[in-house]
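Problem 12. The chain below contains 169 residues. Write out its predicted structure in token notation.
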Amino acid sequence: MKSNRFNRLLMVLLGCCSISWSVVAAGLTWDELDSEQRQLLQRFEGRWEQLPEERQLLLQKGADRWQDMTPKQRKRAQQQFSNWQALPDAQKQTIRDRFQRFKQLPPEQQKNLRKARQRFKDLPAERKQQLRERWKKLPADQKRALRDKIIDRPVIIRKHQTVRPTDKR
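Solution.
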């Protein structure tokens, strides 16, 4: 009796999965986008059906994010995009490569890097400039050692201090 009920449940779940998979596999038609999404993505209308499904989903997700932004957030996003477009291709590729390496790090190391970046962003402008200048003067092996230290060692941030636990290796 239990086995029969389990088999029916399994069949229903598999049926649902196959239906949802076929929807994902088929991609999105232009008409499935809402009017705001179509307006934002209008430059893709003529070739929408030829875009890979993954690209369609990413564009739809981006349009959704844009719709959820405040005017201030939109202005900042436009400025960041303009800055990106102004970068030389070689620098864009370097950034893409670093991002791929970051995504391959374990979650704990990603967390440590995000915290370190946030601490840097929170510094006064003159202190950030001092650190940038110091960084430029460091030899490559010292830069590598500092990067490793930031990635590998947890950082505990308290209100007015940063405590680095001792390395017990």
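Discussion. The helical segments are 2-26, 35-40, 53-68, 71-86, 89-104, 107-122, 125-137, 140-152. Students who got a different answer should revisit the alignment rule from Section 12.3.
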